[in-house]
Amino acid sequence: MQQLMDYDFLMKHFYNVHTSTTADRELMNAKNLLSKDLPLEKEDAPQILIYHTHSQEAFADSVPGDVNTGIVGVGECLTKILTEQYGYRVLHNTGQYDVETRDNAYSRALPAVEQILAENPSIQVIIDLHRDEVAEETKLVTDIQGRPTARFMFFNGLSRTRKTGDIDYLANENQEANLAFSFQMQLKAAEYYPGLTRRIYLKGYRYNMHLRPRTLLVDLGAQNNTVEEAINACDPLAHILDMVLKGE
């Protein structure tokens, strides 16, 4: 905790801040982030929503035109693991909000997700599952128990730009809880799966993370990972999530 309370240490080892935004000492306080109470009592109703703002994101060996071999298929795998191995009630929304263009995909996804939440008020955890895009020579893969596994990254929007300050029309009353959720996930990953996660990425806008306190945006692998590597990452991701939601 002494190291984590050192702002410079925290930002160097746990975060990557995009040049568009700022993350000050008051916001990035490890003690506050770790004190957030995030455990979830299981109930017989949907509690976790998985969806994909960018449903068309694919991997190196995805079948063109078949979203089930891209990030949507990975979402289905994560859904199955969380349901069958950990006993959560999970909804997987396979809506497509980026077919013609990625522009404004977040705006198109928002009303659909809001409708799902209105119809299922028991949902307390939201995961917007993506895959990243990196330089071709960058390989986001590690070995977990003998299996090639795509590395992943948690992402937070800060509703703040360096030029304009806080973005009032993108206010997020759940921002601190969102940051706590990703940070607690990151610490569990570091403890149980060293090297699996990249530093948490902080960027300027909101990315629909305001809908629930326990909201994650995850970039799982990149365009040059294989489908197998991405699928293999679902096991540790589900394990980490389960530990955080149990308060372990």
Question: Your description of this structure?
Answer:
- The strands form three sheets. This protein has a seven-stranded mixed sheet. Strands 5-6 form a two-stranded antiparallel ribbon. A two-stranded antiparallel sheet has the order 8-9.
- The radius of gyration is 17 Å and the shape is globular.
- The mean pLDDT is about 95.
- Helix content is about 30%, strand content about 20%.
- It contains seven helices and eleven strands.
- Helix 3 packs across helix 7 and helix 5 (about 175-190) crosses helix 7.
- With about 250 residues, it is α/β, with parallel strands linked by helices.
Unreliable residue stretches: none
Helix content: 25-40%
Distance between the termini: 17 Å
Q: What's the helix-strand series?
A: HEHEHEHEEEEEEHEEHH
Strand order of the largest sheet: 1-10-7-11-4-2-3
Report the major sheet. 7 strands, mixed
Number of strands: 11
Number of helices: 7
Question: What is the rounded Rg?
Answer: 17 Å
Question: What fraction of residues sit in β-strands?
Answer: 15-25%
How would the global form be characterised?
globular
Mean pLDDT: 96
Structural class: alpha/beta
